[in-house]
Every structure is written in C-alpha cells, then in structure tokens.
Amino acid sequence: MGSAAATPVLPASGPPGLPLLGHLLAFGRDPLAFLAQLRDDHGDFARWSLGPRRSLFISRPEHIAEFLGAVERTFEMVDLSWMLRQVAGESVVLSRGADWQRKRSLVQPAVRPRQVREYAATMVECGIAHADRWRDDQRIDVLDEMTALTQRIVLRTLFGSDLGDQGRVLAAAMAMAQQKIGAELRSVSQFLPGWVRTPARRRLLKAVATIDAEVNQLIADRLAGTGPAPGDDLLTRLFEARDEQGCPLSPKEVRDEAVTFWAAGHETTSTALTWTWYLLSRSPEARGRLTEELARVLGGRPPVFDDYERLDWTRQVVKEALRLYPPVWVLPATARQGATLAGAPVPVGTTVWCSPWTTHRDPRWFPDPEAFRPQRWDPDAQPAVPEHAWFPFGGGQRACLGARFAMVEATLLLATLAQRFHLHLDPDEPVPRPGLLLQPAERLQATLRML
Fold first, then answer.
1. Which residues take part in binding heme (predicted)?
2. Strands 445-450 and 421-425
3. What is the C-alpha to C-alpha distance for residues 103 and 125, in angstroms, rounded to an integer?
4. Which residues are within 8 A (CB) of 309 and not within 5 positions of it... i.e. 6 or more apart?
5. For 59-450, which CATH class?
6. Which of 91, 140, 146, 362 could covalently link to 273 via disulfide, CB atoms 3.0 to 4.6 Å apart?
7. Is 400 labeled as ligand-binding?
8. What is the share, in percent, of the chain residues with pLDDT greater than 70?
C-alpha cells in the first residue's frame, strides 16, 4: 500500500494496494463487490485508498449515524467529480459552511410536507396520462418509461409546464451529463484537473451549455414576465425565497438549484421505480398483496395525497426496493480537524465512506438480506431495523431535502400504474451498474399486462 494509505486510520486493517493508485482499479472494476469485500474481510472499519485519497470505509449503523451527523461540523462533503460541479454549480448539494446553511434555509421550504401535498395531484395526473398511453401486451423499456414519467412531473412541479420541445432538449442534455458523470466517477479521470479536456469532458461541457441556455432563458422569461405565469411551482418558490437579511437567490443560484432539483428530482425516483417493478415481477406474492391493497384502499379511483399513509404495503414495497437497490449507493466526506469516530480520532484529510448498498445488504441488520421482503417494514416486524441500517436518503444535516417528495412520488406513481397494469419483466437477472446512481447495466424490457 502506498505511504498515504499506510498512515494509521483508527484501529483499522485493509487490503494491500498499488503505489499511487491504491485500490482505484479494484474499485473501478466493481465498486459494489469491492466495498462488500472490505466489510467482510476487514470489519466495520476498513482502511483503503482511492488513488492518493486516504480512505476509511465504515459499516455499522451507529458509526454511520455518528459520521453523517458530523458532516458540516468535523467532516465536509467531497468534490468527487469536476463534471458534477459543472452541472450542479454551487447548489445546496455541493456548497459548504455558511453558504450551505443559507441555501438550505432558502430551498428547504419549497419541499416541505405542505408543498409536497400540493405537488401530489400533479404526480398522479401525470401517472394517469402515462398509463393512458400504455396498451395490453405492449413491450416497453422500463427505465425509459419511468424516466419519461418522472421528467414530466419534475418539469410540471419545477417550471409549471411540460415545456414541449424545450423540455425534450433539456432532458437529452441532462441524460448525457449524468451518463458522463457516472463514467468519470469510476475512472482515473476523476483525479484530473479541470483544465484537462478529455473527449468525455468536452461532451459534458456541450451538454451543460445546452442546459444553461435553456434554464437561463426560462429564468429570464420569468423575471421579465414573458414566460408562464408564476404559480405553485418550485421556480416561483425559489424566486420568492429570502434569507435572514431579506436577500433573494441570485439568477445564477436559482439556476443551480433548479438544475439540481431537475437531476435529483426525477432520476432517483425513476431508478427506484425501475428496480421496484423488477422486484415485483419476481415476487407474485408481493404483487398479489399490492393488487389487493390498491383495490381495498382505492376502490378503483386514483390515489390522492391522503392515501399515502393508508397504502401501507405499497410504501413497504418502495422501502424494500430502496433497501435492495438504493439509487445513491455511496456517501463520502473528508475529515477536518477534530474529527472522531467511535471515540477515536480520524486524521485530517481522510475520506470516510459509507454505502447504503453494503449496509442495506448486511445480514446482521437484515436476515436473508438478498430476499425481497416488504414485510420487513411492518411497524410490528421483529427484529426491528436499527436506525441508520436503512439510509437511502443519507442522514444528518445533509440528508436529502427531497426525501419526502421522492417517497410520496414513488408510492403514488406505483399505486397509479399498478392499479391498471402489471409489468412482466424478461427473466434475465439485471446487473446493477454504479455510476452517479445505481441503475441496471442493461436495459430492462417488460411486457405490459392490463389488469
């Protein structure tokens, strides 16, 4: 192992690595298997290195809770990708310190429960319109269909309209950007300085230029009063937000938050729904209970926001899908002065990693962890799941602001579509591909069966 990785980090062991590269090649080949192997071979604290980055991998829920709770105090978020910053700018996801606190206070009200209630009708309306286009025995690409649906929802909730051709241009550019970011996260190019323009980075910058042109025009039109009238959309809320000094977000800050919400607000949900359909297709019993609950609770009508709490099994299905296939599969942060874990100091500059993927599939917290069992999430289930053994939306102050939006959206969309159709997926076992999000490596094809 290189000298940086050999520096003691807690009483932790780790596998030998290559000079300079550390464990980058093994991590790049199969990040999920590599992290699981770290846990299995080296315990709850495993020392490793990602290139020159001295790292510590943690696996126990109580350590994860301590770690995530200390972000913004003794740990700071990692800039994993130059590409990601080109897309998200200085949004609340990537900002730090006082700037992060200010932006969080401005953005958070836009996704509070009362606002999510107002967006629920749009979610269901878009789900019904999408299902109206489906036909019995039709063949579909599941991720493409879920992406198109959640894109429409994010456009409606963010900008107040579908945007027509402009929305399609934005969607294509965003898809290109997310693809390139995911690829760079698995390669040595993540360590290259920003001025190095690889072919992938040039393609990303072209996509970002399109995103900027379209979103900045929407913002300019709204400011000039020539775009869609301000309404109950997120863009309006971002313009209306004021900090403690009464200052609004600048147009550039509105752009960064809008683009980040676009990316985080649809891709994570479409990914989660894709895995959910796969798991239901493999579990006739779980699908049967879902059909029964929808008939009993909804009686053939579309769901509304108040049904979210009534659809117990539907929510349990979504939670179990998020356990097995968390879209955000790894969370890193770097130690500052004074950082500790489990009572031991963590050297400044050490990157601490935790992974929903590995913790969610740890047999200590989830018996028979590979099995799809939504009943794990029954409030009376035993043994109870430890706190932070399930954390698909992160935790601490940096927990995903849109977690409530995402859970309501996934649950209501699943209920809306599953009332009318079953998706019978092809029998091939999908391989998860970790990039910016955890998505299937190959396309998941399904045949629609009308109920």
1. 400
2. antiparallel
3. 31
4. none
5. mainly alpha
6. 146
7. yes
8. 96
